[in-house]
Design a protein that fits this description.
The structure holds two protein chains of two kinds. By secondary structure, chain A is α/β, with parallel strands linked by helices. Chain A has helices spanning 3-8, 15-31, 51-60, 71-74, 77-87, 164-173; strands at residues 67-69, 100-103, 128-132, 142-145, 153-155, 180-185, 188-192, 197-198. A five-stranded mixed sheet of chain A has the order 1-2-3-6-7. Chain A has a three-stranded antiparallel sheet with strand order 5-4-8. Classes of the chains: A alpha/beta, B alpha/beta. Chain A: This is Carbon-phosphorus lyase complex subunit.
Chain lengths: 203, 291
Amino acid sequence: MTLDSIAIEGGFKDPVFDAQTMFRAIMQAMAEPGTVHHGIALTKPPAPLTPEAAGVALTLCDQDTPVWLDPALQADEAVGAWLAFHTGAPIANTPADAHFALVADPENLIGLENFAQGSQEYPDRSATLVLQVASLTGGAELLLEGPGIQHQARLSPRPMPRHFARQWAQNRARFPRGIDIVLVSREGLAALPRTTRIADQED
Amino acid sequence: MTEIAQYNFAYLDEQTKRMIRRAILKAIAIPGYQVPFASREMPMPYGWGTGGVQVTASVIGPDDVLKVIDQGADDTTNAVSIRAFFQKVANVAVTTHTGDATIIQTRHRIPEERLKAGQVLVYQVPIPEPLRFLEPRETETRKMHALEEYGLMHVKLYEDIAQHGHIATTFAYPVKVEGRYVMDPSPTPKFDNPKMHMSAALQLFGAGREKRIYAIPPHTRVESLDFEDHPFEVQRFADPCALCGGTDVYLDEVILDDRGGRMFVCSDTDHCEGRRAEGHRGHLAGEAVGA
């Protein structure tokens, strides 16, 4: 297959309804942090971009939203070409310019503070990170508290960025500024909005 | 029957939906903060719920069941026309039963029935900025939110007490969301404020003319502003609903004649009908229904 045909194929089968289904999953995940949502409309992007992460990109990204790709995704130019064809989103040169960041290798992700945090007046002008994780279970357990969570929620994604609990506490301390995270894996989709606290499990 | 035009599902084009969807996600991530968005012209005038309609149109799917209320009623002009709009442009199922709906678009009321997890309540908001009547400049109110400087709002409530002896604000009563942002709950009666606190449903607010979207995720603290010596109180009614006999509900006054005759009935028509179907009767139910 030529590069061009890879770029053109593999989008949503039904753009209107697939995007709506996908958005509802993301919205519910964001509203109830820690819950895992299925019913993801699948796409067929070039590896290492996963169908789930690509689905999020097709749902939310367009010419208004610069997208940053981590080095693992930048390595294969087919990924950028596929995203350019299906979303029209420009590729951000630096993480600070990106509205969305797609990350295939969360373990080696640069520090969260490198991404757009928004300003105190406009905290919505901040990046949303889409992390492709191998699994939403089996990693170090995160005990979650905050808006959208009745008592406590548990999530054990793996792999996660280094020193994630500490990085997340710093992100939380910047509130209302800060980034939001969408976790995608074959098992479904979960989200960590900036309001979510990771409870200390030392005791 | 000639169809004049074929619209995209739910009227809005896909790029507009993406823009609104991104705003909704940021609104959920920053509870109570007003996210600016590029509000579109809708086939209805500003003030008729264009913000709520755009939010609903961006969220709704073919499997949803939609309920629309206007001041609690399913059968008033605004509710009927918005419900018809979505039946036409999205061909979705509609209902008047609060419990059956997945999305409830509302103008100025929260249903009496406790909302469930998974439901989405979409508010139509005229003026999203709670500080707007105290400070007309957007640059200033934005700075006040940024600095969490809400003294002016407390001064306003204090002046109520100085003038009237109690907090006289009865609707659009300001709330603080998750201890950070002061938010306008839209012109709902303050009677409904406690229902926003720790609600199981997701609450989305759309202001079309003012181009703002904000949100309260489920299980989020929503506190009505007050003072230790003047705690927040909701309205109380002397009589129960004249049709269903319900207490602990918000009542509307209905004028019966030109000699001062009046009755008080449930503002939430679905709740009232449900109670009457269960056999509850108010003191005017017989005459009013049988006439």
